[in-house]
Structure to design on (692 residues):
């Protein structure tokens, strides 16, 4: 089924609500919100004001709201010859008549929704409904009869009466057919499309019927029964609305990220399926893209308006070529002039403008969410206002100057608060400002600005700038960690060379790393300190003149005694903030073992096949013991208690692989820091050991 959706200004306009400039961007210095383009002005709210395509805000038109109690959606419009306006609604399928300011029920179809209206001959009003595909004929007194229930049809999307042929045309779904219906209710298939739905219809002066389809967004010209030609294949999923005037056809085409569902009247119209309570609901419109095209007399097609942020719901051409476009997202109507300049012309509280009749004697439009009728009133609006979107400073801020550019008399007010949505906790609107000056609203995270135009004013607003100073946020360090630099393996000259030597390469340089939280993106510097864990005094790791700005540091411990140490990382945002506003914080590491000295081998002896001695380290533990005979392969052995768990390990190893004769046995010990200490002992030749 077809959603009637919206458009939100030209595709050439950036969809940015407010441009945030900061000086510099990473520093907590004076920043500003500047609103000076169509996107930023359009992101606000309009109250009888208009946003024009030249990026100006001006007083708009006066309009009056007529409520429709218990009506969730007003969906279709037809204007009578006497100036009265007839409105098709849901959920009970009522048709209302509006004369002047008087609204009354004209007829009741008892269907879910009156989705299409059209005037025929003799003052007959035709009403198409869903979900049963029924068409009703209603006379001037409101007497209603069912004209026809179309076969294989659930939805009547469009009606158009041809006075030449005395024929009513109906665009339908889900079989994608146009029916031709006579005064007696006899219906023939006039055009059978491949599409699921015929969304829109329009007759030109020559009697050609134009039909807009779903699925592929085709515009088709039907010259007679079964005689049709594709005029254009538009981008998107559906041709939603058509309007013909003075030889020109306006075409509203929509593109959705997902194809519109054909199975739910609720998703399409905002009306709910019939239930015992007839509860009304109007779902939030889906995002999409809308485009407005113009088919000229010479057959030339050109795009005159577009939006990547919403869908069209309806379109109407005026005699002078001005096009009015209704939206289904933010309750807005756009006006597109023949020269393609445009304006966000009307903004109402309801989200969906579903049908418009703005070119007659009494201009009106109707809405969903909830159903209401609006009348355009002659004369200048009593109140004309533009209110910015809620401006977010991200943190509590002090507000400075409010300045603007424009012509004529404009009054400004501000209000502030700490909730994203305006509620009772916000401040009241400030006193009106008629000249640029300091903002009087209290410090807060959020701010709104309102511009008011005097009645009958020709004032023009071109730019608004708000200056503010956000509260500085403290950066914090966490997860301080250390790794000792030992990327390679090496053999050592202090011990016998072997073919299988996998000793680490000890280094006195430790790589310190940490993580950072920097809420406002300030430039930062770090200062590092260390202390022995048995001491209270922190010592600087580097000179004050050395600026550390990366999240790592190489700590040279070659002059640091062995032991366990703690490292402290201090972070300061002083590079981005004046001294009175700069903030600091600290984080400490866990215990770090600094061990740059090798263990020593003491009391090494070899007698009667026993290799004895002691491996002693300053810090410990000794993590590895090995011996080698005559520079051969290193063989691991354990200390006397079989555990390598202290800084002082005694060993007594029985060597069974020492051959006869004189030999050299080397012993090496490795500590937890990868440092290696070694010693050697020589065996006496066997002959020298015999007594004489």
């Amino acid at each position: 089924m077809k959603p009637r959706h919206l458009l939100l200004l030209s595709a050439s306009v950036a969809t940015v609500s407010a441009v945030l400039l900061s000086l510099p961007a990473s520093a907590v210095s004076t920043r500003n919100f500047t609103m000076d383009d169509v996107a930023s002005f359009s992101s606000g709210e309009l109250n009888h004001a208009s946003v024009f395509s030249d990026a100006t805000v001006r007083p708009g038109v006066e309009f009056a709201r007529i409520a429709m109690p218990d009506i969730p959606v007003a969906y279709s419009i037809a204007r009578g010859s006497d100036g009265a306006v007839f409105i098709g609604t849901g959920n009970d399928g009522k048709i209302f008549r509006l004369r002047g300011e008087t609204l009354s029920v004209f007829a009741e179809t008892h269907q879910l929704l009156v989705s299409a209206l059209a005037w025929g001959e003799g003052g007959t009003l035709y009403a198409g409904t869903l979900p049963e595909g029924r068409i009703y004929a209603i006379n001037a007194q409101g007497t209603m009869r069912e004209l026809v229930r179309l076969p294989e049809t659930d939805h009547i999307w469009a009606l158009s009466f041809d006075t030449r042929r005395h024929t009513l045309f109906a665009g339908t779904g889900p079989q994608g057919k146009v029916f031709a219906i006579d005064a007696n209710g006899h219906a023939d298939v006039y055009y059978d499309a491949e599409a699921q739905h015929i969304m829109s219809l329009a007759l030109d002066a020559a009697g050609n019927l134009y039909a807009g389809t779903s699925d592929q967004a085709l515009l088709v010209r039907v010259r007679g029964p079964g005689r049709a030609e594709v005029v254009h294949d538009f981008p998107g999923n559906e041709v939603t609305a058509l309007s013909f005037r003075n030889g020109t056809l306006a075409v509203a085409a929509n593109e959705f990220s997902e194809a519109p569902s054909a199975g739910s009247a609720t998703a399409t119209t905002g009306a709910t399926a019939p239930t015992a309570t007839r509860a009304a609901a109007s779902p939030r419109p889906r995002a999409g893209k809308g485009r407005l095209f113009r088919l000229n007399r010479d057959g030339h097609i050109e795009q005159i308006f577009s939006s990547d942020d919403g869908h069209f719901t309806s379109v109407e051409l005026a005699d002078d070529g001005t096009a009015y476009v209704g939206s289904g997202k933010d309750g807005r109507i756009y006006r597109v002039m023949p020269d393609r300049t445009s304006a966000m012309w009307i903004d109402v509280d309801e989200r969906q403008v579903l049908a418009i009749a703005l070119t007659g004697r009494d201009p009106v439009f109707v809405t969903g969410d909830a159903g209401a009728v609006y009348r355009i009133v002659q004369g200048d609006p009593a109140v004309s206002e533009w209110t910015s979107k809620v401006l977010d400073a991200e943190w509590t801020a002090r507000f400075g100057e409010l300045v603007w550019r424009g012509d004529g008399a404009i009054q400004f007010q501000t209000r502030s608060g700490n909730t994203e949505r305006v509620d009772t906790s916000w401040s009241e609107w400030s006193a009106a400002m008629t000249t640029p000056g300091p903002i009087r609203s209290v410090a807060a995270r959020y701010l709104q600005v309102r511009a008011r135009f005097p009645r009958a004013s020709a004032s023009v607003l071109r730019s608004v700038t708000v200056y503010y100073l956000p509260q500085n946020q403290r950066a914090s360090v966490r997860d301080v960690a250390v790794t000792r630099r030992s990327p390679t393996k090496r053999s050592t000259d202090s011990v016998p060379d072997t073919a299988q030597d996998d000793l680490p390469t000890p280094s006195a340089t430790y790589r310190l790393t940490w993580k950072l939280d920097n809420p406002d993106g300030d430039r930062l510097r770090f200062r590092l300190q260390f202390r022995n864990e048995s001491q209270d005094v922190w010592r600087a790791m580097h000179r004050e003149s050395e600026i550390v700005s990366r999240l790592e540091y190489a700590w040279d411990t070659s002059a640091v005694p062995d032991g366990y140490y703690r490292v402290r990382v201090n972070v300061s945002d002083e590079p981005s903030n004046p001294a009175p506003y700069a903030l600091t914080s600290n984080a400490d590491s866990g215990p770090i073992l600094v061990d740059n000295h090798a263990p020593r081998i003491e009391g090494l002896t070899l007698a009667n096949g026993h290799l004895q001695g002691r491996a002693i380290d300053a810090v410990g533990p000794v993590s590895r013991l090995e011996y080698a005979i005559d520079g051969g392969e290193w063989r691991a052995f354990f200390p006397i208690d079989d555990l390598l768990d202290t800084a002082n390990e005694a060993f007594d190893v029985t060597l069974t692989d020492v051959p006869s004769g004189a030999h050299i046995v080397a012993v090496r010990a490795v500590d937890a820091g990868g440092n290696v200490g070694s010693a050697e002992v020589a065996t006496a030749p066997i002959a020298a050991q015999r007594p004489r």
User: Anything to note?
Assistant: The domain at 476-594 is CATH 2.60.40.10 (Immunoglobulin-like). Residues 25 and 521 are 8 Å apart (CA to CA). Confidence is low (pLDDT under 50) at residues 1-26, 261-285, 486-500, 686-692.
